[in-house]
C-alpha cells in the first residue's frame, strides 16, 4: 500500500491522542481517588454504588434516631427507678406501721412521710425530658398528665406509644405511657395508706401490706421493661454500625481507585506517550531530502 | 524520417518533461493542502495524437482518485458526525443530572426523607419542623432546576440546528458556484474544491452524489435533490407545535418539502430534540408529580401542631417538575406541618414516619422513587457509554477510509523527489537530443555551402 505524508501524520496524531486520553483518565483517577466518577464510566457499578450510598445514609439516620431514643429511654429508666425507690420507702412505712408500732402519734408522723412521698411521686410522674412530658403518651405538652384527687390520680395523657425508626422496616416503641402507670396505680394505695395512718386504721394498714408489696414488684417489672427497650436499641445500634462498616468497605471497593494500580498505569501511559512523541520527531525528520546532495 | 520531424519530436520531448515536472511541482507545493489530489500528466494528450504540438498547463493535469472509496468515506463521515453529536449531547444531559458528587437529586431526596424521621423524633420542636420545610424547599428547587436545565438544553439544540442549517446553506451555495464553473471548464483545482465542499457537507447529513456526463454533479440527500441544473435549495428549520410539545424538521425553503434526515450531525440533533431530551423531562416530571401527590395524600390525613387538619404539603396539581413548590403557608409557619395522626397529640410523630416511609413504597410504575431514579441514571449512562464506543469505532473506520483515499490521492514527498530526479534526467536527455539534431542539421547545411 502506498504511504503518503498525510497518512503518516494522521496515524501519529491519532496514536498520540490516544496516549493523552489514557493519561488523562489515569490522572483523573489519581487526583479524585475514585475510579468511577460519573454514570457513564460504568453504569452498572455506579448504580450499585448509588444504592449502597443511599443505604448507608439511611443507616446513619437510624443511628441518629437510636442515639436520641437512648437519651429518652435512659431518662425514663432513671425516673422509673426513682419511683420504684419511693414505693420501697412506702413499703417500709407500711411494715413499720403494721408490725412494729401501733402508736397513733408515730402513725401520724408516718402519714406525713407518706404524704411527702406521694408528692414526690407525683412530681416524678409529671417530669419532662427536653421539655416533653415523659409519661403522658403523646400528650407531651400543655397540662400535666397526672393530678391528685381525693380518691386517686387523674390522667390526662393517652396510651399512645412513641415510635422510632431503627431499620428500613422496623420501628421501636420507646416510651412508657402514663396509662401503664395508672394500671399499676401507685397513687391510690398511697392515698389509702396516708388516710389509714391518719385514722389509725390497723385493719386497713394490714390489708395494705400485700398491696404495697405487689405495687413494688409491679413497678420493678416496669423498670425492667424499660431496660428491655434499651437493650433492643443497643442491639439495633450495634447491627447498624457493623452494617455501615461493611458498606464502607464494599463502597470503597466499588468506587475507589487503587492508588498503586492507578499510579503505575499513569507511569506506563506517560512512557508510551513520550515514546510516541520521540517516534514522531524521528519519522517526520526523515525524508529523501536529507539524502539528496 | 526528416530532420524537421526529428526537431518536432525533440521539442515534444522537452515539453513532455516540462509538463511532468510541472505536475511534480504542483504536487510538492500542495503536499499539505486539504483535499488536494495529486496530479499526473495525461499521457494521451502528451503524445499529441491529435496532431500538432500540445502545450500543457496545470489546468489539464489529471487527478488520482478513487470514487468508490470517496463515496464510502462520505457515508461513514455522516455516521461519525451523528455519533459525535449524540455523545456530546448525552454527556451534557449527564452533567445536568450531575450525580458525581453529593449535590444531585439523590441526596436531596435522602435529606428530605430523613428530615421527616427527625420530625417524628421531635414533633413538637419548631427546629425540626423548619428543617423539614428547608429540605423540602431544597428538593423542590432541585427538581425545578433540573427541569429548567433540560429545557434549556432542548432549546440550545434547536439553536445549534439552525446554525448548522445556515452552514449547510453556505456550503450549498458555494457548491453551486463551483459546479457551474466546472461545467464550463473542469480544472483540477475546481474539482478538488468541489470534493472538499461535499466532504464538509457529509458530516452534517447524508449526501448522495451523481456524476453527470459534463463533469457536473447532482447533490441529493436521501432522495431530496439539493443541487441540480444550476438550481440550489435552501434549508430551514421548521417547528410544528401541538399542545405542549413541539417537533422540529428540516425543510426545503419555498418548496415546503421536508428532508428525510436520519444521520449526520443534523440527525443526532433532531433525534435528541425530539426524543432523547423529552423522555428525560417526562421521567423527571413523573417523579416530581409522584412525590408531590403521595406526600400530600398522607399529609392531608394528619393534624398539625395546632390541632387542625392539615392542608397540602406541596402545592398540589402540578403538571411538570418546574412547578414543584412547598406550600407557601408552611414556609411562613412550620407549625402547620402535620406530624401527628391524631388531633391535639403534640408528641405524635406517626404521620411523619409514614411520610418518611413513602421512600420505600412503589409510587411510580411499580417501583419506588429511588429505583426509578436509578433506572433513569442508568439509562443516561448507558446511552453515553454506547455513543462513546460507537464514536471511537467509527473514528477508526473513517481514518481507515481516509488512509485508503490518501494512499491513492495523497502526495508522498519521497516519491515526488524521486520523480523529480527522473524527469530532470529526461529533460536533460531531451535537451541533449535537441543539441544533437541541431549539429546534424548544421552538418547537412555545411554539406551544401
Quote the distance from N terminus to C terminus of chain A.
28 Å
| Relative strand content of chain A | 5-15%
Order of strands, widest sheet of chain A: 1-2
Distance between the termini of chain B: 23 Å
* CATH architecture label name of the largest domain in chain A: Up-down Bundle
Tell me the CATH superfamily of the largest domain in chain A. Answer: f41 fragment of flagellin, N-terminal domain
Count interface residues per chain for the largest interface.
A-B, 55 and 56 residues
- % residues in beta strands of chain B: 5-15%
Which secondary-structure class do the elements of chain B indicate? Answer: alpha+beta
* CATH class group of the largest domain in chain A: Mainly Alpha
The major pleated sheet of chain B works out as: 4 strands, antiparallel
Q: How confident is the prediction overall: mean pLDDT of chain B?
A: 89
Structural class determined from secondary elements of chain A: mainly alpha
Number of strands of chain B: 10
Amino acid at each position: 500500500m502506498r504511504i503518503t505524508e498525510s497518512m503518516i501524520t494522521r496515524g501519529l496524531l491519532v496514536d498520540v491522542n490516544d496516549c493523552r486520553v489514557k493519561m488523562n483518565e489515569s490522572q483523573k483517577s489519581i487526583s479524585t481517588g475514585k475510579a468511577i466518577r460519573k454514570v457513564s464510566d460504568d453504569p452498572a457499578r455506579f448504580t450499585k454504588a448509588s444504592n449502597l450510598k443511599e443505604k448507608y445514609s439511611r443507616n446513619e439516620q437510624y443511628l441518629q434516631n437510636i442515639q436520641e431514643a437512648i437519651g429518652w429511654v435512659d431518662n425514663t429508666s432513671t425516673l422509673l427507678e426513682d419511683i420504684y425507690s419511693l414505693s420501697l420507702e412506702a413499703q417500709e412505712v407500711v411494715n413499720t406501721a403494721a408490725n412494729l408500732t401501733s402508736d397513733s402519734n408515730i402513725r401520724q408522723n408516718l402519714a406525713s412521710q407518706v404524704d411527702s412521698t406521694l408528692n414526690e411521686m407525683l412530681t416524678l410522674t409529671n417530669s419532662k425530658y427536653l421539655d416533653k412530658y415523659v409519661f403522658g403518651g403523646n400528650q407531651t405538652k400543655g397540662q400535666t398528665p397526672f393530678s391528685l384527687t381525693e380518691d386517686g390520680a387523674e390522667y390526662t395523657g393517652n396510651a399512645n406509644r412513641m415510635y422510632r425508626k431503627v431499620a428500613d422496616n422496623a420501628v421501636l416503641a420507646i416510651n412508657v405511657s402514663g396509662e401503664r402507670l395508672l394500671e399499676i396505680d401507685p397513687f391510690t394505695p398511697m392515698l389509702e395508706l396516708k388516710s389509714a395512718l391518719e385514722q389509725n386504721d390497723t385493719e386497713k394498714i394490714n390489708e395494705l401490706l400485700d398491696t404495697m408489696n405487689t405495687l413494688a414488684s409491679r413497678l420493678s417489672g416496669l423498670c425492667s421493661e424499660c431496660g428491655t427497650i434499651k437493650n433492643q436499641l443497643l442491639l439495633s445500634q450495634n447491627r447498624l454500625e457493623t452494617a455501615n462498616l461493611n458498606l464502607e468497605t464494599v463502597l470503597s471497593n466499588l468506587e475507589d481507585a487503587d492508588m498503586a494500580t492507578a499510579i503505575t498505569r499513569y507511569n506506563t501511559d506517560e512512557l508510551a506517550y513520550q515514546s510516541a512523541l520521540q517516534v514522531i520527531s524521528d519519522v517526520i525528520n526523515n525524508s529523501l531530502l536529507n539524502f539528496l546532495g | 524520417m526528416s530532420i524537421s520531424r526529428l526537431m518536432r519530436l525533440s521539442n515534444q520531448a522537452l515539453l513532455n518533461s516540462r509538463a511532468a515536472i510541472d505536475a511534480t511541482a504542483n504536487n510538492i507545493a500542495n503536499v499539505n493542502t486539504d483535499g488536494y489530489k495529486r496530479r499526473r500528466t495525461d499521457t494521451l494528450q502528451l503524445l499529441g495524437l491529435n496532431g500538432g504540438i500540445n502545450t500543457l498547463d496545470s489546468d489539464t493535469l489529471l487527478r488520482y482518485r478513487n470514487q468508490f472509496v470517496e463515496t464510502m468515506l462520505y457515508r461513514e463521515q455522516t455516521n461519525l458526525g451523528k455519533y459525535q453529536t449524540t455523545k456530546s449531547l448525552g454527556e451534557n444531559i449527564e452533567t445536568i443530572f450531575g450525580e458525581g458528587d453529593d449535590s444531585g437529586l439523590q441526596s436531596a431526596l435522602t435529606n428530605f426523607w430523613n428530615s421527616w424521621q427527625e420530625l417524628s423524633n421531635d414533633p413538637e420542636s419548631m427546629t425540626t419542623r423548619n428543617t423539614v420545610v428547608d429540605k423540602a424547599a431544597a428538593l423542590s428547587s432541585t427538581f425545578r432546576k433540573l427541569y429548567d436545565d433540560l429545557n434549556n438544553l432542548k432549546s440550545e439544540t434547536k439553536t445549534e440546528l439552525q446554525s448548522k442549517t445556515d452552514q449547510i446553506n453556505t456550503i450549498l451555495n458555494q457548491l453551486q458556484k463551483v459546479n457551474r464553473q466546472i461545467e464550463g471548464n473542469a480544472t483540477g483545482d475546481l474539482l478538488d474544491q468541489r470534493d472538499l465542499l461535499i466532504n464538509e457537507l457529509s458530516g452534517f447529513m447524508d449526501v448522495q452524489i451523481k456524476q453527470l456526463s459534463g463533469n457536473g454533479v447532482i447533490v441529493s440527500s436521501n432522495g431530496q435533490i439539493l443541487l441540480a441544473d444550476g438550481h440550489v435549495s435552501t434549508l430551514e428549520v421548521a417547528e410544528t407545535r401541538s399542545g405542549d410539545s413541539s417537533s422540529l424538521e428540516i425543510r426545503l425553503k419555498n418548496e415546503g418539502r421536508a428532508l428525510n434526515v436520519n444521520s449526520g450531525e443534523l440527525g443526532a440533533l433532531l433525534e435528541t430534540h425530539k426524543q432523547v431530551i423529552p423522555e428525560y423531562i417526562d421521567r423527571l416530571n413523573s417523579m416530581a408529580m409522584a412525590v408531590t401527590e403521595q406526600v400530600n395524600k398522607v399529609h392531608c390525613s394528619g393534624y398539625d401542631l395546632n390541632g387542625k387538619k392539615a392542608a397540602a404539603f406541596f402545592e398540589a396539581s402540578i403538571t411538570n417538575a418546574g412547578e414543584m413548590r412547598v406550600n407557601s403557608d408552611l414556609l411562613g409557619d412550620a407549625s402547620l406541618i402535620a406530624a401527628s395522626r391524631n388531633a391535639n397529640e403534640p408528641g405524635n410523630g406517626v404521620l411523619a414516619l409514614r411520610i418518611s416511609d413513602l421512600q420505600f413504597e412503589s409510587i411510580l410504575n411499580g417501583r419506588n422513587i429511588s429505583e426509578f431514579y436509578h433506572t433513569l441514571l442508568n439509562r443516561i449512562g448507558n446511552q453515553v457509554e454506547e455513543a462513546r464506543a460507537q464514536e471511537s469505532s467509527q473514528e477508526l473506520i473513517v481514518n481507515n477510509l481516509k488512509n485508503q483515499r490518501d494512499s491513492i490521492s495523497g502526495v508522498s514527498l519521497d516519491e515526488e523527489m524521486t520523480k523529480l530526479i527522473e524527469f530532470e534526467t529526461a529533460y536533460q536527455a531531451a535537451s541533449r537530443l535537441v543539441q544533437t539534431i541541431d549539429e546534424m542539421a548544421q552538418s547537412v547545411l555545411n554539406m551544401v555551402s
